[in-house]
Structure formats: C-alpha cells, structure tokens
Design brief:
five-stranded mixed sheet; transmembrane helix; membrane; alpha+beta; DM13 domain-containing protein; single chain; transmembrane; Immunoglobulin-like
Length: 172
Amino acid sequence: MAGSFSFLRRHLRLVIATGVLMTAAVVFVLLYFEPQKLVLDDRVDEPPPAAAGTPATVLSQGRVISRGHPGSGTTRVLRLQNGSRVLRLEQLNVENGPDLRVRLTEAGPRASDDSYRHDYVDLGALKGNLGNQNYGVPAGVRLDRFRAVVIWCRRFTYAFAAAPLSVSRQDA
C-alpha cells in the first residue's frame, strides 16, 4: 500500500495530467457525439396548422421508413388557404440523435446517404423525435423537384429516416 502512495507522489503530475485528459475526453464525447440522446426522447405535439378555420389541402402524403435508425410515422405536405405550405410530421417515432434536421431532398427515400448531401432544402432542426410537428416550406420552393423528406443527422452526415414526397407540378 505504501508503495502505491509513493508512486503517486513521485508521478503526481502524470496522474493529474491523465485525470485531466480523461475528463476532457468524456466531456468531448458527451458534447460532440451526444450518446445520451439515444436514450432520451423529445416529444412534441403541435396541432395541425389551420388558416381561417378551413381545412388544408393535402399535396403529398408518405410513410416514414427506417434508414440508419428505426423510424415510423407519416409525412404530409399541406397547402393552407392563404397559399402557404407546411410539412407536417404525424405520429413520428424515430431514434433521437445529435443535430437532427428536416430536409426536402431530390434523392428518393432509399437513396444513398451521400446523395442527401446535395440538392436539398433544410426546413430546420427536428423539434422532437416523437409526436406531431409542423415545418413551414419557404415560398418559392418548387416541391415537384423533391422526392423525399429526410430526417438527417447533420453532424455525422447520416440519414436516420425518410419518407417519399410526391407533389404534382401543378401543386408545386
């Protein structure tokens, strides 16, 4: 026992430096990779968008499919009475992860992850990995160009889930 303390006293700087480096490594992993998000859920329950009390027109509807992580739910693109468009995720259930984004992409729902890195419109951060949520589609975006909605991990350039998107040219 005395030998152990003797070693620690002789190598105190090394022991402290090792402790600092290990602590820094743990902090880095928790902040950058965010592994805790794989076990923590964020539930969002936004009501369907409404404009002047009239129902929205459904321009497209698709089922969420699993990509890199399990996923399910429904996507709908709605045109409100005022002409604005909203992407609605309903009963979404995907694994949580770091820096998840909602994208419209020209690549299909089963395309390679590399194809999702180009020709997309980012609708913003995923509000929650569970529930119902709405994302405004910017004016001027031609929806007939896009073939999928993708839940995209921007940090690791990785598709968590996707859904087909099919909007006719006249509705775009």
